[in-house]
Amino acid sequence: TISVQAISRSQTADAGTISRLQTAMSTGSCSLLTPSSGRTSSAAETGTREEIQNILKVLTEGADAIREHPGSSSPCAQGVPACPTEALSEEGEAKAETQLQECVSELLSTEANYLEDLRFTTREYSRPLYHLLEDSQAHYNIFSNHEQLLELHVKLDDALANARAFTEHASRAETTVQAFIDLLPYFKMQEMT
């Protein structure tokens, strides 16, 4: 989930995207990023592809908005909402900013845990079993895209390292979102397999 304020600061969102993001924040959609066991997210445990597809859709729309209006100056960027219904009180903005930071922190933590799990699985299972399984097809059936997933998430972790380094909340959120947007085509490829 992306905050309205973060998108407004980057001067790239249309009113529809802002509205969808406000709805996502108010419904608590960040819960899918909450680590349930301290190791993986509940979305990963349940394998809920719909939740992942919804996240990808929002990221795609954000990327499209960036491409359509690079560097444009939106009324939101200057503190003036595009329409009165989008105006948030200072208390509402503070709450939304807190929720955004919690979501970003959970996302960064969950992604780091997932990468650690991928590395563990590769080191302890995939590579050792490659030589032990008599049939290479059996290894492929079990670990078919594991190496590609590992490579993708290593790239994502490198990009997210920049976000982890930021102390300013808006920059941290924007850098996190941009890391996912930059790798969006690779996530779509994984979705198809």
Q: Into which percent range does the helicity of residues fall?
A: over 70%
Any low-confidence stretches, pLDDT <50, length ≥5? Answer: 1-26, 28-48, 72-80
Provide the residue-averaged pLDDT: 69
Number of helices: 9
Architecture blueprint of SSEs:
Elements: H1 4-10, H2 15-26, H3 42-46, H4 49-68, H5 90-132, H6 136-143, H7 146-165, H8 169-182, H9 184-192
GO molecular function: guanyl-nucleotide exchange factor activity
InterPro entries: DBL_dom_sf, DH_dom
Protein name: DH domain-containing protein
Written account of the structure:
This protein has helices at residues 4-10, 15-26, 42-46, 49-68, 90-132, 136-143, 146-165, 169-182, 184-192. The protein is 72% helix and 0% strand. The chain has one domain (4-192). With 193 residues, it is an all-alpha fold. The chain has nine helices and no strands.
Please outline what is shown here.
The chain is 72% helix and 0% strand. It is an all-alpha fold and 193 residues long. Helix 1 (4-10) crosses helix 8 (169-182) and helix 5 crosses helix 8 (169-182).
